[in-house]
C-alpha cells in the first residue's frame, strides 16, 4: 500500500466507498511500530462490540488489555490486523491506514494481496495456535515470509531455525503440531509471527488454551520479546504478567476503554469503579 500523506481525523472514516477522507493535518514523522486506533466502531448486527475506541501505542511499548469476556478485547486486535473491518474510524500503523487506501474523499478497501502484505507487518498470535497441521514446525515458520513476502527460502529457513531456537524449540524443527504440547505449539506460533519481521505483535490470550503447567514457558518467551523493544498489544487475564512487563494497562468493558495508564495506577489504584470490581474478582 502507498503510505498516506495525510492523517485521518478521528471518527471520519466509515465503510469502504462511503467513507469520509482522512483529514488534512500533517502527520507526525512515522516511527516503526506506532499504532493508532481512532474512533473505531464495530457491530455485528445490532450488537455493538467496539463503541468508539481511541488508543495510541508508541513504538516499542507493551500495552496489556484486560477486561471481562465480551468486552471487545479480541475484536480490537482483529480490527488492528484487519481480520475484521471497521464500521467507523480507522487504524494506522506508522501512518499507513490498515486495510484501506484513500481515493479522493473516500476510503476504499485494499485488494486482498495488499492486505496480506500489511498483515506481515503486524504479527498475530492466536489463542488456538492456528498452525498448519500438515507442516513441520520449521515449515510453519517459513510459510509466510516466502509466500507473502517473496523472500528467498534458504535465507528464511536459516532465520526460522534461529527463531525456533530462540523460543526453546531447536530440537523440534521437524515435528508436526500433533507431536508437540500446547505450550510448544504456541511457541512455534510466536516464532511464526516473528518470521515476517513485524513492526507490531498482537497476542490474543496466548495462554488461555494451555494447561496451567505450560503457561509459564509461553509467558517467559513473551516477556523476553517485551524486553526487546517490539511494540506489543497483549490481551490476557494474567495480571502478574501485566504488572511485570506492561508500559500501559488498558481496561475495557462493553466495547469501550474504561481506564488506561501505568500498571501501578490501573492495577493498584484504579480510578473507575468498574475497573475495581473486575480486579476484585480476578486478583
From TrEMBL:
Catalytic activity: a polar amino acid(out) + ATP + H2O = a polar amino acid(in) + ADP + phosphate + H(+)
Pfam families (alphabetical): ABC_tran
Positions of region (Disordered): 1-26
Position of the signal peptide: none
Alphabetized GO MF terms: ATP binding; ATP hydrolysis activity; ATPase-coupled polar amino acid-transporter activity
Keywords from the UniProt entry: ATP-binding, Nucleotide-binding, Transport
TM helices/strands, residue ranges: none
Superkingdom to which the source organism belongs: Bacteria
Documented EC number(s): 7.4.2.1
ABC transporter domain sequence ranges: 35-279
Stored InterPro entries: AAA+_ATPase, ABC_ATPase_HisP-typ, ABC_transporter-like_ATP-bd, ABC_transporter-like_CS, MetN_ABC_transporter-like, P-loop_NTPase
Family membership: Belongs to the ABC transporter superfamily.
Full protein name: ABC-type polar-amino-acid transporter
Organism phylogeny: Bacteria, Bacillati, Actinomycetota, Actinomycetes, Micrococcales
Amino acid at each position: 500500500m502507498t503510505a498516506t500523506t495525510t492523517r485521518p481525523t478521528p471518527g471520519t472514516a466509515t465503510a469502504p466507498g462511503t467513507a469520509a477522507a482522512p483529514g488534512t493535518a500533517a502527520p507526525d514523522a512515522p516511527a516503526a511500530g506506532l499504532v493508532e486506533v481512532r474512533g473505531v466502531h464495530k457491530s455485528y448486527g445490532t450488537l455493538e462490540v467496539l463503541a468508539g475506541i481511541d488508543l495510541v501505542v508508541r513504538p516499542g511499548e507493551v500495552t496489556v488489555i484486560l477486561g471481562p469476556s465480551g468486552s471487545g478485547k479480541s475484536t480490537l486486535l482483529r480490527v488492528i490486523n484487519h481480520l475484521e473491518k471497521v464500521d467507523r474510524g480507522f487504524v494506522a500503523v506508522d501512518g499507513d491506514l490498515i486495510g484501506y487506501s484513500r481515493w479522493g474523499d473516500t476510503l476504499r478497501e485494499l485488494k486482498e494481496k495488499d492486505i496480506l502484505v500489511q498483515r506481515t507487518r503486524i504479527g498475530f498470535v492466536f489463542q488456538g495456535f492456528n498452525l498448519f497441521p500438515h507442516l513441520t514446525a520449521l515449515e510453519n515458520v517459513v510459510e509466510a515470509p516466502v509466500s507473502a513476502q517473496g523472500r528467498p527460502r534458504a535465507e528464511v529457513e536459516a532465520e526460522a531455525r534461529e527463531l525456533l531456537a530462540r523460543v526453546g524449540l531447536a530440537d523440534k524443527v521437524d515435528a508436526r503440531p500433533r507431536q508437540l504440547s500446547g505450550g510448544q505449539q504456541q511457541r512455534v506460533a510466536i516464532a511464526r509471527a516473528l518470521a515476517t519481521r513485524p513492526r507490531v505483535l498482537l497476542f490474543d490470550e496466548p495462554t488461555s488454551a494451555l494447561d496451567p503447567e505450560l503457561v509459564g514457558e509461553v509467558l517467559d518467551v513473551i516477556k523476553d520479546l517485551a524486553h526487546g523493544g517490539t511494540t506489543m498489544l497483549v490481551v490476557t487475564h494474567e495480571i502478574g504478567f501485566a504488572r511485570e512487563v506492561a508500559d500501559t494497562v488498558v481496561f475495557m468493558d462493553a466495547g469501550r476503554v474504561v481506564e488506561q495508564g501505568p500498571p501501578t495506577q490501573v492495577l493498584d489504584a484504579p480510578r473507575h469503579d468498574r475497573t475495581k470490581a473486575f480486579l476484585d474478582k480476578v486478583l
